[in-house]
Design a protein that fits this description.
Blueprint (H helix, E strand, L loop, with lengths): L1 H26 L5 E4 L9 H10 L4 E5 L6 H10 L3 E6 L2 H17 L4 E4 L11 H20 L3 E5 L7 E2 L2 E2 H9 L4 E5 H6 L4 H7 L4 E6 L1 E2 L11 E2 L8 H11 L3 E4 L7 H15 L11
Parallel strand pairs: 1-2, 1-12, 2-3, 3-4, 4-5, 5-8, 8-9, 9-12
Antiparallel strand pairs: 6-7, 10-11
Length: 288
């Protein structure tokens, strides 16, 4: 009788210990905040990197390709820290070479959004016709991806924001791609190209999968960090940007910093800032 009682007490204690996190997951809407794993590439092992995300109170990531591991290994690590992969940066060359393989890997980890993260110099158009041609190619790929139950997005830097008779290369690309291609707008690079991020958000209303939430340090500062700053700690006007982002239908706010001295601090600072200032939330999860 005594052993049964002790065993029952132990089981009850374990259930109660797990309950707060579980109950919070069901009842409390979470902010749509994620972390781009590129920011953590120098922060130890993949396990350590995901622990940083977890400890910052963030439950979603955007991966960099396969993160150097197999799909089962990545899924196991994500599950260990209760983190969901909401998107993955996949080079255009990989999409061209092995789209079925990319789709299969991402399906295995539960991800449904693929993002073209960067264009090598040889792939960057130099005129309006080139941006239109690239847009048409991405439109074709996005249709293939959609047929697999996924979606394709494009992430900008500043070189897409060159002006061609009143329209940027980025605008030409999306106009040619058609409605299937989604936008992942990097706000710091938009500002570095001389544009107002709040205004640029309005140009992609309705097709904004995400923004890369990153900040620029004041000119001449943080040069060893590429001139970037933690979200809310730089020069971008978040009081204007966040309402504009919500109005444009942004689905995810993905924290990124290209060259952080202290990756964990940058992620925690950005997550805290966004939690305090975002007015939008994800729906509460139902019990599984």
């Amino acid at each position: 009788m005594k052993n049964t009682s002790v065993r029952g007490t132990a089981i009850l204690a374990l259930l109660l210990a797990a309950l707060p996190a579980f109950a919070h997951d069901i009842a409390t809407p979470q902010k749509p905040i994620a972390v781009q794993m590129y920011s953590l590439r120098n922060a130890g092992s993949l396990d350590q990197q995901l622990k940083i995300v977890h400890d910052a109170g963030v439950g979603a990531v955007e991966t960099v390709g396969t993160q150097g591991v197999s799909a089962p290994e990545l899924k196991q690590l994500l599950d260990r820290y209760a983190i969901k992969a909401i998107s993955s940066h996949v080079p255009l060359a990989e999409l061209r070479k092995d789209l079925p393989g990319v789709v299969a890997f991402n399906r295995s980890i539960g991800n449904t959004t693929l993002v073209v993260p960067y264009l090598d110099a040889k792939d960057r158009p130099t005129d309006a016709a080139g941006w239109t041609a690239l847009g048409k190619e991405l439109g074709r790929i996005s249709k293939q991806v959609r047929a697999e139950g996924m979606r394709l997005a494009y992430h900008n830097h500043d070189f897409e924001l060159v002006d061609f008779n009143g329209r940027t290369g980025l605008e030409l690309l999306f106009a040619a791609a058609g409605p299937d291609l989604q936008t992942e707008l990097d706000l710091a690079w938009v500002a570095r190209a001389g544009y107002d991020p709040a205004v640029m958000l309005g140009k992609f209303r309705g097709r904004l999968f995400a923004v890369h939430a990153k900040d620029n340090a004041p000119k001449g500062q943080a040069e060893d960090e590429g001139g970037f700053a933690a979200v809310g700690q730089g020069v971008l006007d978040w009081n204007a940007i966040l309402p504009a982002a919500a109005g444009a239908g942004v689905q995810w706010y993905i924290i990124e910093h290209d060259q952080p001295r202290d990756p964990a601090k940058v992620i925690k600072t950005g997550a805290d800032y966004l939690r305090d200032h975002l007015t939008v939330s994800l729906p509460a999860r139902a019990p599984r």
